[in-house]
Amino acid sequence: MQQLSRKSRKIEVGSLRLGGDESVVVQSMCATRTADVDRTVAQIHQLARAGAGIVRVAVDNDKEVAALREIRAQTRGVALAVDLQENYPLAERIAPHVDKFRYNPGHLHHREKSKSVADKVRWLVEIAREHGLAIRIGVNCGSVAPEFVARYPGDQLGAMVESALYHCSLMDDLGFARFVVSLKDSDPAKVIEANRRFAAKRPDVPLHLGVTEAGLPPGGVIKTRIAFEKLLAAGIGDTIRVSLTVPNERKHEEVEAGHRIIADVAAGRFVSVPDFGSGLNIISCPSCSRVENERFVELAEQVRELTAYAARHRITIAVMGCRVNGPGETDDADLGLWCGPTTVNLKRGEQKLGYFPYDEVLDRLKIELDRLITERSAVQ
Ligand code: SF4
Q1: Which domains occur in the chain, in start order?
Q2: Residue 7 CA to ligand 1 centre (angstroms)
């Protein structure tokens, strides 16, 4: 495959190298419950067989830390990464069993409130150094650190990029170079812009590309392709993840889609893509171990079918799998749903409308969608 010209430095993630003139690494994330060792190990092998260079798992509690030790023992040879969301203090205990961890700068303030962000990052870097790990600074548009949101009012992208740059400067001050950055959103246009801005300022830092909650295939692949084509062709991006809402046994499709996009870009094959700025836009997350009810994927499919009649209306509906990220990640949608163990939460913009049993939420969604269409038609 033709190498894309990239300027980032090389770093090691376990025995894998990424950045610089290395091939773009495709990665993915398990959607099984991490505590279910057998299913998680099987999914890691499924993803690795499909060509994933790095596989990520979510770890949120003690039971999952214990499971991780066993998972690692059964998946030697695959670079493992752990996603630390709000529970970053778990880093110390997961470190012996992984090659890389991701922290979200927007979630560091939730714990140990008296400790500064710089001190928390220093602690994370010490752990990474001690265990020979790489770090991902993973910034998400839906959870930018409050101090950056306050500093850049009305400029989400500015807040994201500056937050990432600040964390890079913390790494620089600590003399730690083994890190990558990601700037993700569900809108491909924002992903393109944020990564371009960041890469212009820090071309030396390897970038992990992703469009969050891209949704069901084939639309989810197209959305992701829109962003990746533009960035990879410009030499931006060292590792990628395609996030799709698919059942567990089809998770390998994320990896296959990633490899197809890289190969097409390298060969100069670009597709013409629809304009997501017009018409109905349904986003849904790729699911992970945080999903508490497996009806989530079916729900996302039902939402797409139910709302097909509104295809020409410029409305965004977000369907998220869990209560951890669902409330924040749906903020920018016109209508948002996120799944709990027995009910689905529904909101319109930032206004919560309540929670509904799985077999009742679609009726209420339709009422809200019709109301929105009527209101918008009236002002046109
Ligand atoms: S929204 Fe929740 S379930 Fe979906 S990928 Fe994100 S953390 Fe996992």
Answers
A1: 11-266 (3.20.20.20), 281-378 (3.30.413.10)
A2: 32
